[in-house]
Predict the structure of Heme chaperone HemW.
Amino acid sequence: MAGIYIHIPFCKKACYYCDFHFSTNWKVKTELLAAIEQELELQRNYLNGESVETVYFGGGTPSILTGEEINAILDKINTLHHVAASAEITLEANPDDLDAAKIKELRQTAVNRFSIGIQSFFDEDLQWMNRAHNASEAKSSIMRAQDAGFENITCDLIYGYPLLTNKKWKENIQTLIDLQIPHISSYSMTVEPQTALASFIRKNKQQPMNEEQSAEQFQYLIEELSKANFLHYEISNFGKEGWLSKHNSNYWFGKKYLGIGPSAHSFNGETRQWNIANNYKYIDSLSQKKIPFEEELLSPVQRLNEYVMTALRTMWGIDLKKIENNYGKEFLEEIMHTAEKYIDKQWVTNNEDKLILSKEGKLYADLIASELFIT
Ligand SMILES: C[S@@+](CC[C@H](N)C(=O)[O-])C[C@H]1O[C@@H](n2cnc3c(N)ncnc32)[C@H](O)[C@@H]1O
Ligand SMILES: C[S@@+](CC[C@H](N)C(=O)[O-])C[C@H]1O[C@@H](n2cnc3c(N)ncnc32)[C@H](O)[C@@H]1O
Ligand code: SF4
């Protein structure tokens, strides 16, 4: 069981905070789509014939594609792989793209899950982020998708930035609960060095992020969504029973996935590889039937640390038996030695051979994971 990720590296506007790979220049869109098909061909054996359980169109902004363009990619995948009949096929969509005509078009594709980039339901916040949509489009895009029969919808929200008062945060969460969205991903605003936001802060045109505010809003999010029957199954992800994301869960469970497109990364169980994050170079290389990637063979210790980091962030926690069986007793003892401190503090619980973050511990996931790393 494996996944395929397709990266669509185009956006209408550059959000001030975003450091993912995208371009606002769409001149080479046709060439890029041809290169994606070429890469799919060249990587046809990457998954070793495993059946494909999930396909995820991410970006950038995949909702700029027409239904026909999406179908062409999915047809290609179908000719090269066995795609499970029940496969989860997600498309990341920005609200400004989801007008009635586009939704109708998307009904004619096999896409069965939308990840809508809402971020906020307030105009001033969306402008502050330089998003291409407004608050009313945020809401209407969700309702339109639901009216057209799309049930499996996840929405992204961002918190922890200066403009977001607790009152607005409450309303953003409540709006998604009221709209009966079954899955929510929510991220604390991070200031990435190469972004406009970082440059505004350096020039004192913007306040830096406030960690206390962010922690408070994260706690509030956890409490409200738990009251509304969401499982907090990964630090940034909440879903109602039966609606958890299969694609992302497979990343956390260490399953294989093939990433196609510029900046996409792949994992075959042993090595990680990632494609060049440059549209022109990507197209040029594939026109010569060469995949422009770098790779890294993970050592057992690196694999163990990665496992500790991703598993600790999930509600299933770190499986101590798995560590003992796959990596040996010594590593297990070393990890347990460090974990004692956090178990005493009640940041981590140790039940049935699992280390799981407590409510308080969720605030310190990254710190705890880095302390547990084997060096
Ligand atoms: C890379 S975007 C792609 C999907 C789509 N273009 C969108 O904007 O929603 C995926 C998610 O990452 C979030 N994201 C990107 N940069 C971030 C940052 N610096 N801090 C927090 N969230 C961020 C986006 O807001 C979005 O919800
Ligand atoms: C920040 S996450 C948001 C997930 C989404 N809200 C959900 O739960 O369905 C998604 C972003 O991570 C990046 N991403 C995911 N898988 C990737 C892969 N295999 N290679 C490169 N980028 C990837 C893409 O930029 C994508 O927009
Ligand atoms: S957040 Fe989404 S829409 Fe905004 S620049 Fe990044 S990928 Fe594009």
